Amino acid sequence: MEYVLACFTVCPLRFIDAHGHRPVTDDERATAYAFHRDLAAALGLPPSPAGGLAEVARRMDTCETRHFAPTEAARALWRSTSAGLPAARLPAPLAPLASAVTATLLDEPLRTALGVRRPPAPVRALATYAPGSRRRGPRTGRRDRPGGR
């Protein structure tokens, strides 16, 4: 349970640092750790480590190193989840790339455990730069409408 809680705390921060419009601030990290600590207490988990968020991340990484391993069950899990929902969320012309695009969201230890190859460079570039294209392009949408509605 501690590992799952760590994933819900550490992974989003890492994702935002890698793909967000700006890195996570120290205040946001402190808030994430406070939420992690309070939720752990509410769930009756052992107290959070003294090293703060960095220690939570280190423990999560250590757990993955020790326990992640390729298995047929992991490969079956990947096959069942990597194409359906992601394909439905992508524009129709990109739907065939759903599995590869989804694989770009996995770090190397998880890709290894699931038996997933590193996606080709063009797919990695698409997944890295497409989410930020809205912030780099001209602003449109609700904020540009009269009255802000």
UniProtKB/TrEMBL annotation:
Pfam families with a match to the protein in the record: MPAB_Lcp_cat
Region Disordered, residue ranges: 122-149
Annotated protein name in UniProt: ER-bound oxygenase mpaB/mpaB'/Rubber oxygenase catalytic domain-containing protein
Residues in ER-bound oxygenase mpaB/mpaB'/Rubber oxygenase catalytic domain copies: 3-132
Positions of transmembrane segments: none
Species this chain originates from: Streptomyces axinellae
